[in-house]
């Protein structure tokens, strides 16, 4: 009986709202951040290794982190773990992932502001509107609805 519809057919209801494309992109962004901070972590843990060349991208960061000693290694390890967890949490649509991402973005925004105003790192001014835009996106109704649905 091709082409005929049957009254016994069942319809499926969507069980969860689809992940917004911006959250997918942000999750990948945090995954990239985890990878970059992991490379920095390993480079600081083993100075003079083949990874030393990555610091040509930002020699000021190398100088600043190098002066921190073992604390720089701990910091970059923490950043790596935090970014990896945020990536996973956002991907899975977890509330904890949402709040971790918001906190990391807010910390990044504060760091950019603190680096721009005294003139320590004038290029950080680029990060201020970007962080604000991402935080505004995270506060949007669609994103909040995705993370704070009743079945989450």
Structural class: mainly alpha
Tally of helical runs: 6
What is the total domain count? 1
Shape category = globular
Describe this protein's structure.
With 152 residues, this protein is mostly helical. The chain has one domain. It contains 6 helices and no strands. It has helices at 21-45, 59-66, 70-92, 95-116, 127-138, 141-147. Helix 1 (21-45) runs antiparallel to helix 3 (70-92). The two termini are 42 Å apart.
What's the gist of this structure?
The protein is an all-alpha fold and 152 residues long. The protein has helices spanning 21-45, 59-66, 70-92, 95-116, 127-138, 141-147.
Features:
64% helix; 6 helices; 152 residues; mainly alpha; single chain
Topology:
Blueprint: H1 21-45, H2 59-66, H3 70-92, H4 95-116, H5 127-138, H6 141-147
